[in-house]
Each structure stands twice: as C-alpha cells, then as structure tokens.
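Researcher: Re-running this chain for the archive, since the previous output was lost when a drive failed. Same request as before.
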Amino acid sequence: MTVGTQMQQAIAGIQSASATMKTFSLETEDVTAKNDFEQIAVQLDSVMDILKGRQKYIQSQEPQY
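Model: Regenerated structure tokens:
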C-alpha cells in the first residue's frame, strides 16, 4: 500500500467520523452533547484540512502516489 493510498484512507476515515459527529449533533436534544459533537466535528474538519494539504504535498513530491 502506498503512502498516497494510506493518506486517502486516513482522510476518508476522518470525513466519516466528522459526518457521524454532525449526525449525532443533529439527533440529540441534550444541549451539552450537541455542543460537544459540533466541536469534535469542527476539530476533525481542521485535521482533515491539514491532511489534505499534506496529501497535496506528497503528490507534488511523488507524482506516482
């Protein structure tokens, strides 16, 4: 498995986790839990942006990935 493939899998996993947190946030009536889920989703989106930037860098350095 190439680094590029591993990175893509990591990004997909984080996207999935973020979507799950957003769903939890919409489905719960507990205000504290809703805020927690929203905050986690924002943090995951931030991590995803960092990884996407890293992925672009890898692709520019190693086009075969």
